[in-house]
Structures are given as structure tokens and as C-alpha cells.
Amino acid sequence: MNSSSLPPDLREDVLRYIDELVKRSKRRSPSSLRCVAEGSLKELGTRYSSVDLQHKAPEWRGGKSR
User: Fold this and answer.
1) ∠ at Cα 17 (28, 22), nearest 5°?
2) pLDDT in tens, 7-65
3) CA within 20 to 30 Å of 41's CA: 5, 9, 31, 49, which one?
4) How far apart are CA 35 and CA 38, in angstroms?
């Protein structure tokens, strides 16, 4: 479906809607994603290898450990 298949009044509504979406996207300030947990398990790196942590994760989630 393309806009030419719409009645003229709906076509105008679609164009206004698109313009509004473009304006909104330009108003948003670019933000970087933040990981709030970043570094929170840093001390575990000295005691466990990444494989050890993979095996511990199910236990910490309440499941079975290997």
C-alpha cells in the first residue's frame, strides 16, 4: 500500500504524522547506553574464571549448578 491509494484527507494526516515523528527524533538527544552493573562483579574476576562464572550463574539464579 502506498500513500496515493489513500483519500486526500488521510494522505495529509499521514504526512503530518511523519513530519511529527521526524521532529521528535531530531529533538531527542543522543544518549549512550549505560550498563549500571558494569564493574559490579569485578572482584569476582580475581577468584573465578569466565567458565567458572558461567557454571555459577544458574546457581545464583536459583537453578541447579553443574
Assistant:
1) 30
2) 999 999 999 999 999 888 877 666 666 667 777 777 777 888 888 888 888 888 887 65
3) 31
4) 5
